[in-house]
Design brief:
The protein has 148 residues and is of the alpha+beta class. 27% of the residues lie in helices and 20% in strands. The protein has helices at residues 83-100, 107-128; strands at 2-3, 7-8, 21-28, 34-40, 62-63, 68-72, 77-79. A hairpin with a 4-residue loop joins strand 5 (62-63) and strand 6. It is flat and about 65 Å long.
């Protein structure tokens, strides 16, 4: 993909585009990663009625909290992931190195990028582990009930 004032960018597609894009928005984050968002015109697809069969006979209540990721009605507790807690030691060391760098030195931008990269790793792990409808019901034969 060619971007004006930047040049050619190598693209790693997350999925194929259903049609030719009408516009593209390219953004760059603090770690110098580029993200492209495409606008595509497509025809709406009608989703047929889904048949859950006997899966709707089982009900499971879910309570989302701060101490645990979720507590199910049968008493099972799913621990909350602690990505920042796991990365704190490395982040502390990198931030200390950044604070010791003199402003205007050549090493300060390098240290700033290292800190930004570590923050991006934590954010990426959180994004991957975020709740999704497919992972919300860990038991076979369960389906959402009363979810807003």
């Amino acid at each position: 993909m060619y971007v004006a004032k930047v040049g050619d960018l190598e693209i790693r597609w997350s999925r194929p585009l259903p049609a030719a894009p009408t516009s593209v928005t390219a953004t760059k984050d603090a770690v110098d990663r580029y993200w492209a968002s495409f606008v595509v015109d497509t025809d709406p697809q009608i989703i047929e009625d889904l048949d859950f069969g006997d899966a709707l006979d089982t009900e499971t209540g879910i309570d989302v909290s701060l101490a645990y990721f979720a507590v199910l009605s049968n008493g099972k507790k799913i621990d909350a992931p602690r990505f920042l807690r796991q990365a704190e030691r490395k982040l502390k060391r990198m931030q200390k190195a950044l604070s010791c760098c003199t402003k205007g030195s050549n090493n300060r931008p390098k240290a700033r990028k290292k800190v930004a990269r570590q923050h991006a790793r934590v954010a990426d792990r959180r994004f991957i582990a975020r709740p999704s409808p497919a992972r919300a019901f860990p038991f076979k034969g369960t389906a959402p009930f009363g979810v807003p």
